[in-house]
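On to our target:
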Amino acid sequence: MSLNEMQKAYEPKDTEKKWYDYWENNGLFHASDHSENGRYCIVIPPPNVTGALHMGHALNHTLQDILIRWRRMVGDDTLWQPGTDHAGIATQNVVERELLKTEGKKRHELGREALIKKIWEWREKYGDKILEQLKSLGASCDWERTRFTLDEGLSRAVREAFVGLYDKGLIYRGKYIVNWCPRCHTALADDEVDHEDEPGHLWHIRYPLADEPGHIIVATTRPETLLGDTAVAVNPKDERYSNLIGKMVKLPETNRQIPIVADDFVDASFGTGAVKVTPAHDPNDFQIGTRHNLPLINIMDEEAVLNEEAGEKYQGMSRDECRKKIVAELTAQNLIEKIEDHAHAVGHCYRCKTTIEPWLSDQWFVRMRPLAEKAIRATEEGKVNFHPKRWTQFYMQWLENARDWCISRQIWWGHRIPVWYCDTSNQKPGSPESQNHCPPIVSRETPTRCPHCGGTKLKQDEDVLDTWFSSALWPFSTLGWPDKTGLLKNYYPTSTLVTDRGIIYFWVARMVMMGLELLNEVPFKDVYIHGTILDEQGRKMSKSLGNGIDPLEIIGKYGADAMRFSLVLLSTEGQDLKLSESKFEMGRNFCNKLWNATRFAMMNLEGAPKHFDESKMTFADKWIKNRLAKTISEITDALEDFKFNTAAQALYQFVWNDFCDWYLEAAKLAMREDEDASVKAASQFTLKETITTITKLLHPFLPFITEELWHHLEPETGSIMKARFPQKTESIPYEAEAAAFELAKEIVSAIRNIRGEHNVKPSQKIKAVLKFSSQKQEEAINNSRAYIMHLAKLETLDAGKDIIVPKQAATALAGELEIHIPYEGLIDLKAERQRLQKEIGKAENDFLGLERKLSNEEFISKAPKEIVDRENERMLASRAAIAALKEALRKLG
């Protein structure tokens, strides 16, 4: 150990890149394909190739890294599987915008192959940017195994999964209402639609009866879709309309007549109780249309522009234009009964925020009910566990109500659907005219001939799969599935998933369903859901608000360790975290405290022994070993329970308070030149053992600074990553000695408080008188006398059971032990009277509270005897404290 090699102050910039390169160059993150040890695996939530590191990533990957580094030090073979997601819609949007900006072209002008080539070029240039940023955070992923959702192996896994599910009848193609984004020109899953409450209106429209005078009034928030109506629906129990069911109405602005049908779905209390049914433009109407065999009339094209089905008057209009026009026409015809203000939820594309259009189209779907039932059973059987547990209900509710998943996307960047159509008839695949010809070819390999007719004119489905389809296979496709690889055998099922609540149903549920269906095993046992990072006002961080905090800037200013530790200290049990830049100072201050403590330790470890005489250990040595053992146990339990904040708080408390503020000061006594050599040796050994143990405990949280300190403390042992994580013991040592030292701490703290309250200079030596009441207290004082005098800066310390206390003295209590500091020439008597009166008031309030509790017959009868006895003891102690404080006040006159 060389103190000369340590800088006086810790500089993260000089440390972080050096040690990250060292870890990578020495292959310390790389996992073995085969292992006889314990195994621990986490798959990274694959960030989008378009992404850049934000604070949510920083928290998410810090927590994963803590688990991985901890399990690695425990002795497990660990794999943190990294990779990126191709992010179909987002990535194509980025390149399309760039294409329009630089070349003035849209994708259809460029063509499919040319656009995909440009996207691959973009991906090669920018796609791994976020992975490099994760390295600056200290993420210890097995980068040699980095995967991409469009790489060859994962593409093969996608085809295998699609064909396997299709063969089981779990994937099908059909007409269905989808969430259509007119801007992105693609269908979106229900989960990809953001619903936002917006002010709007409820139009009450008169639909004239066809064969008799009169009308029925329907209420709608979308009058423009009237042109696609194929019925009016009422509730069969609604007596207002019972005589109209089965009759026809004239559909305004068209030449069509449509029926009035009865359907239990209709809410009789909403609006007029009668609703227009537009099966091609509303998912609920689609279900009504299916039940009543109604026509499906799609009145919009993929741009959400009115088509020929809307009629010549409206063809070519946007949705907004059509709404204004049709409301004006209906008003002119006296068909508007009234218009009410009405706020309602409107769906928007999660990518571009365009208003979604429910749209009838041919799409591919995954049948969710059979898959969801397996996932529900797995959770009920304890095979998948959420932490915190409250997210279990959220997850289960989604599974119980999951609708079929639309997996086809009308974009070009992604996994093209592995379905081919025989084009021998030159008819549009899937059209009604082609139904008597060859059925679709669903294949793992690209076919060259139609297996039904032998034709060679084959055309692959134009759509690609939803990005979440390939992501759902991530825990096993990254490990080599569908091949039976050693990696798959070794690390599947994986151990833990760490993610944000926002993708519980997007991703977590789908991974569970796919794992159970394709491998007959859940993909992970534990799911930790962390909170969302918000700004100080409780708002989500976003570019538009300009309220984000850039992790790379924080790392540059405070260091990666400081950022990591601050985030974990502030994140409690999955709760959302309000964050400001100033809060990272706590992490930086902690790193500096650790650095300075290690420097001090090394100043006193020259010639430290490898063995020592335990009988020569001081009270302080035994106390710190006791506290360290308890801290190791607390940290281990917290990590096993995914209570990261609890572990970080325990470390903070132990390092800052126990080790730095108390033990290092106490250890100075044993390090004096005139101290017995064997006592000094025992303290040196304890100091060395404690600081090295601290460094190992902190490594998962603070990887960079701990690696640097380790090479000063243990320069011959290699990386701290190979060190064994401290193991908790069945029994905690030195409990009696630790209790005695705790009493000494209470005494010192009380004396320090008196010093502070009376503005006594820190350098000024003072006198103290202690009056104890038990042999246990006497022994504790005798054994820790030197520490009390040293830490409290006392000139003299008198103690006794029957000792005469000074008539005028500041008085404090440590339990039942009395502490008296003579006033003479030292203390402001007026201020001390005020302090004692305040203390007496507090003590009397405590006493009255206990007295009320113990006079409550219900408490006495229901509380366990040990609790009643404990409260009685507290009341007696409180009464004694009041008497002692009043006596101290009396002495002041």
About this structure: The first strand starts at residue 39 and ends at 43.
